[in-house]
Amino acid sequence: MKHLVERIDELIRLCPGRISLQGEIGDWSYEHDSERMYSSASLIKVPILIEAFRQYENGVFSLGDFVEIRKDLRVGGSGVIQALEQSSWMIKDLKTLMITVSDNTATNMLIELLGIDSVNDSIELLGLKKTKLQRKMMDFSAVQEGKDNYTCAADMIRCLKVIDESGFLKEESCREAKLILRHQQFHKILGLLDQEQGYMGSKSGSLPGVEHDCAIIGVQGKTAYVAILIDQIPEGKSGTLTMQEIGRAVYDAMTTV
């Protein structure tokens, strides 16, 4: 893994912003400032997904239940619900849209359904140290009041492993969550990879000057977990290439004999 470490070190040096990273392949791990807290952007949707499955398993609701979309929760930014007239949606579909197209309205409906306190209780049960849900998506007034959502690379690795390895969630829920991640439409870490080779699932997030991604890569009997968070990106620059190159370096290390 020496070449992989050297390549990641090089890419960190070339990154246009402040970067935190954690990666694991079997017993091998790499960390760079992995517990630094960042504004989470849409990465917060991963622990929300986990809590949705936890409440489903506890019988709080059925995934086939419908919920009405309140006007005050219908917001802009990422997603498709804002452009559709349909007024009620299955919880199962809200979960899928929250992840695959990062739908902010679907996320707000799930936050309303699950409860912010319950999501944070789940975050605590998961042992996430720097992750906190304090506001709904696109709630800029809350941001002005000092309420934001936070996470770190190490916490996102923990979330990915919870989804990939049954224990906190039942095996059936893990399978469904992995399928949702696999259908992700916005790729950074996985952007240069042939996603038909093995299992690949991810969740990204972005804000002005902020780009994050976390991914599970399963190929040739090996599994990698990668989380990359970047902020302080200058205007006109992007962290996407850094993430893509790190993803490719990890994949090459997994597939090189």
UniProtKB/TrEMBL annotation:
State any single GO MF term.
beta-lactamase activity
Q: Does the keyword GTP-binding apply?
A: no
Q: Which residues form the Beta-lactamase class A catalytic domain?
A: 30-228
User: Alphabetically, which GO biological process terms does the record hold?
Assistant: beta-lactam antibiotic catabolic process; response to antibiotic
UniProt-listed Gene3D superfamilies: DD-peptidase/beta-lactamase superfamily
Q: Does the keyword Glycoprotein apply?
A: no
Q: Where are its TM segments located?
A: none
Keywords for the protein's UniProt record, in alphabetical order: Hydrolase
User: Which Pfam families does the UniProt entry name for this protein?
Assistant: Beta-lactamase2 (PF13354)
Q: Which domain of life is it from?
A: Bacteria
Matching InterPro entries, A to Z? Beta-lactam/transpept-like (IPR012338), Beta-lactam_cat (IPR045155), Beta-lactam_class-A (IPR000871)
What is the protein name given in its UniProt record?
Answer: Serine hydrolase
Gene source species = Robertmurraya kyonggiensis
